[in-house]
Amino acid sequence: MTIEIQPSINLKTAIESRRAARSFKPDLIPPAILIEILRLGVRSPSGYNLQPWRFIVLQDAASKEKLKACAFDQRQVVEAPVVLICCGDRRTTQTENIEAVIELGKAAGGMNDNLASYLRQAIPQLFENRPCFESLETWTNRHTMLAVAHLMIAAQSFGVDSCPMEGFAAVKVKEAFQIPEEVDVCCLLPLGYAAEPFKQYGGRFDVTQVYYSENYGKPLQVEI
Amino acid sequence: MTIEIQPSINLKTAIESRRAARSFKPDLIPPAILIEILRLGVRSPSGYNLQPWRFIVLQDAASKEKLKACAFDQRQVVEAPVVLICCGDRRTTQTENIEAVIELGKAAGGMNDNLASYLRQAIPQLFENRPCFESLETWTNRHTMLAVAHLMIAAQSFGVDSCPMEGFAAVKVKEAFQIPEEVDVCCLLPLGYAAEPFKQYGGRFDVTQVYYSENYGKPLQVEI
User: Fold this and answer.
1) Is ipTM strictly over 0.90?
2) A82 - beta bridge partners?
């Protein structure tokens, strides 16, 4: 029997009601919900479908204590029932992963020999020429954060709170969790059920302050 | 009169049905829907609420032609009714923006003098010490891509297709759209209504291939 799990909260409400949870209740996330969140998170897109994201899922108390020591002692890291260490693996730019992506495409029906040949040529060129990024660290973070946003929004739509954190020392995290040199730690993401005190909303800049029209710096005119 | 606009597509369906659109119909996005997508996009979180994302909204045919010449001549850039040039501004790390964020928090009710003092000290320290990133380019991309994912998912939930693109030459885009030196171009995001041919699904690695348990490289055991 397959049970179809549907989100209980609509997208707009999920986006608008989400706050970074600074404290979590001890309540566990039901395994079926957790897996569904993890699955939806990696439906995120990536350039050439390379999927450089990798996540370490912490559920053991000892692991979370170890992470807390690498995260300026912030308590949400040990309180949350699940904590993701969100990483991007630079090695996914290499031949082995390119071939894995081609195989995946064949299985999904979205790959043919012409496209495969194109990918074998175009992907190494992208990383040699880097027209759209300076460092591989930028490239891994760019993609991993797309997936992190998918995870956060999917979680919220199932009533699961999260707390995206950049308060960590990457060198320590990498050492503590046997993360290879070529892998970047992009953020931490505790998941669970928020406890009080809830963080207050800090506000957002107005649409006309962050969206420009046709050229950089020219405020967008909003007329509805 | 305020009209409340609600998404027509649920979150799970929006995430699962989204494909990068390689071709767009000429149909325009209704202005009220477009503004709602833009507004929800920047409800994305950011470290210390600094909101480094900035977007140039292209709607003029001439602007889109100009962008196409910087984007390896890809046709979706001129076909889509709206194209976002998604940027991250490194200058948002500076005092002027920190003070703007503090003012924003005061207006939203989520700021007090202690927190303001803390931010004035902690934010410059973060960018001096950089415990969790190597380059400012990484930091701007990290945040901007969170917002890009919010934009994509919000768009899809209103039935608006998108095409996240890293096929562009950043140097050319910056020159063509008067983007300052300190601003990074993170991706392009055409928005509109997909035309055939639709791109086929390339597949995704299994949850057990990209999620690890407790340490890097140890596959997650999925038991439901």
Assistant:
1) yes
2) A191
